[in-house]
């Protein structure tokens, strides 16, 4: 991975990167976004850390990347042709993101505040954000519009990433991936650990794509951990803002990176197992059965299991935990909690004694006051409808009284930040 640090974003007549500054041609970016006939218009804006800016309703956040060596390209099966990725050399534009926003289609889009107390709870208050507000054509179905906005974001992020193809990275990091046999021979005395990632797939508008395939249609499988760094997994879901993993988080999956930090030192990072979170009991049983089976077949000593969403997926989380533990593999689960505004409700919809090692992201129902900011990118028309808000959210002075779950990527400051969970 080659890291190219972006220090500023400016609009210009030509798109290019010079001396750490990203210059963006509005005309060129709009042309890329409008390649889909379902999008009627696109407006662009720039939001910088510390500015009095609120972005809402946020749909996705994407880090631009370009693959310069190795098989395949960025976002395989979505933008690049289907090919196995995760090897060779990839450049990432660090310190910035492409943010997609637009009219709400459900009730789960989020907010990014670039300053104030809300900024403390979202990692995207710290990135330079190129924001795309997309307007749909008249009469479009909600799920078609949602997909169009998401894919427009991927196209623009790919366009921006291509600007870095001939640059020299500011920093380079190498990630070792061994075959099963190589890992056992090289690290015979280290515990064999894998990452089990539960992908959001609860129904319409709750989509996650794996090589372009909706995760609802997959059975649990094994990835090389570096595949996600090339965009093998992308977001398309509308669960609560603090509960959905934007594409940025998939690209920079913190569990993957933290396990790599310990690989060859305290553990042998064997692989990345992905599973889904469907709504029918038979699907939950099948996926958790297969996940536990893979853990046993790989002769693992331990796994970290992360969850996306809450409520219904709590059942998948506990089923995975119980069955993996029953195979003799130790589990640690990563989840957030919905304990009510007073913190007295049951935090998860399901539980089991096997779930005895938990990393918490805190209580998403915690209330926070977001002050009125000088500028809104997008619209406040839906701010009372998003999950974590109410009809009383918009106060007379322009401030917002909301639960933490409205903030994109939010975590409770008293818990662990999901973007640096260990």
TrEMBL record:
<dbReference type="InterPro" id="IPR016585">
    <property type="entry name" value="Gly/sarc/bet_Rdtase_B_asu/bsu"/>
</dbReference>
<protein>
    <submittedName>
        <fullName>Beta-aspartyl-peptidase</fullName>
    </submittedName>
</protein>
<keyword id="KW-0704">Schiff base</keyword>
<feature type="modified residue" description="Pyruvic acid (Cys)">
    <location>
        <position position="238"/>
    </location>
</feature>
<dbReference type="InterPro" id="IPR015417">
    <property type="entry name" value="Gly_reductase_pB_sua/b"/>
</dbReference>
<keyword id="KW-0670">Pyruvate</keyword>
<dbReference type="GO" id="GO:0050485">
    <property type="term" value="F:oxidoreductase activity, acting on X-H and Y-H to form an X-Y bond, with a disulfide as acceptor"/>
</dbReference>
<dbReference type="Pfam" id="PF09338">
    <property type="entry name" value="Gly_reductase"/>
</dbReference>
<feature type="active site" description="Schiff-base intermediate with substrate; via pyruvic acid">
    <location>
        <position position="238"/>
    </location>
</feature>
